[in-house]
Write a structure and sequence with these properties.
The protein is α/β, with parallel strands linked by helices and 374 residues long. 30% of the residues lie in helices and 26% in strands.
């Protein structure tokens, strides 16, 4: 088991606009077909299951604007599970490299020995959970020997929205563990098709495992300007925490605001993964989706029939809290937000297969000055 799990719970949530917004991003939306359980709930379940009961921490890295959502979800857990959770509010959005550097420094401040760490996303679907947990735990011996491990997803199609991992040969001692030749940023369509046909390229899941001492050495070697502001932080005193229904929130860590202001914004892949010489990839034995579009959300959902009235219409997906009637239309996705939960009231109507263009809508909204819609 891991000594520490880290959940990356930042993000702007624009790909599932209008249901997700800057104040209420995707990780706080209900999972498809589950009204009461959010993406973030599922990430918490994974983090708790993968780490050592009783003695390990679940560190949650999130923007200060999202503290209320996280408090509400975390406090639905009780007892030892809740006591293991620590929320570190990020004063600025500086990317995944800064968040991971901060979490690693925090973990090191409370132990004389290196800590095995698992970094998880907060807005993906992973099933079955048991398969993921078993595979994640199998990586602990690799990372304790010194190295970085990443989960790779066998591509199902030529996707341009993901980064890719180019795998080299398989390690003889570990079935399904590959050495990593290189990381590649999001490709264009032609390049993605080449990756798919090559057979040794995998989607980058954004989930990592490493020991705290190893990753801090890698930061010092490859991105010391990201790490150095956090190295100045001392172990937080007890008065640095506030208690919210049993959840420990590190709201007053002395020097954290200055560290975030000083650090360089960067992704973990660019800062560390692409430069690290000791990386292995575990080919996922579980089903994975980042649910990066309404098409994907609709594919994973059972069609709603309650308060949806169709006349001569077929293959439409509706996500709405108010009744919707459709007449003479096919293959539409209709999303209606009524302004509840802090989400601005708005309506999205699009053809299936066109929902990746929601990002174009978001850019239009920004250009028009109507930022309150985001």
């Amino acid at each position: 088991m891991f000594d520490c799990s880290v959940i990356m719970a930042g993000g702007s949530g624009t790909r599932l606009w209008p249901a997700s917004s800057l104040k209420h991003p995707k990780q706080f939306l209900p999972l498809p077909n589950q009204k009461e359980k959010t993406f973030f709930h599922a990430a918490l379940d994974r983090a708790l299951a993968a780490s050592r009961p009783g003695t390990s921490n679940v560190i949650i890295m999130a923007g200060r604007a999202h503290i209320p959502h996280i408090k509400n979800i975390c406090t639905t857990y009780g007892g030892d599970d809740l006591r293991r959770m620590i929320l570190i509010p990020e004063p600025e959005a500086k990317g995944t490299a800064a968040a991971i550097a901060c979490a690693a420094v925090f973990a090191e401040r409370f132990s004389d020995a290196p800590r095995s760490m698992l970094v998880l996303t907060s807005d993906h679907i992973i099933e079955p959970e048991a398969s993921f947990i078993e595979q994640a735990r199998s990586l602990v011996p690799h990372i304790r020997r010194g190295g970085l491990a990443v989960f790779g997803i066998a591509p199902r199609y030529a996707e341009t929205a993901y980064g890719y991992i180019e795998a080299a040969e398989t390690e003889a001692s570990s079935r399904g563990i590959f050495t990593v030749k290189s990381f590649h940023e999001k490709p264009d369509k032609t390049t993605a098709e080449k990756y798919l046909s090559a057979g040794n390229f995998f989607w980058n899941s954004g989930m990592f495992a490493f020991s705290s001492d190893f990753i801090l050495k890698e930061f010092k070697k490859s991105a010391h300007d990201v790490l150095s502001p956090f190295e100045k932080l001392s172990a937080p005193a007890e008065v640095s925490y506030t208690d919210s229904g049993g959840l420990r929130v590190l709201e007053h860590w002395r020097g954290l605001d200055a560290a975030y202001h000083e650090t360089r914004p960067e992704s973990f892949d660019v800062a560390i993964s692409e430069k690290c010489g000791k990386v292995v990839m575990a080919e996922a034995v579980f089903d994975w989706s980042d649910v990066g579009s309404w098409d994907e959300y609709a594919r994973l959902s059972v069609p709603r029939t309650e308060n949806v009235f169709c006349v001569d219409s077929a293959s439409c997906f509706v996500d709405s809290s108010i009744p919707v009637a459709l007449c003479g239309v096919d293959n539409l996705i209709v999303v209606i937000c009524d302004g509840a939960n802090g989400v601005p009231p708005a309506v999205l109507i699009t053809k299936k297969g066109e929902t990746q263009r929601v990002k174009e809508v978001v850019e239009l909204i920004k250009a028009s000055g109507c930022h309150k819609l985001l």
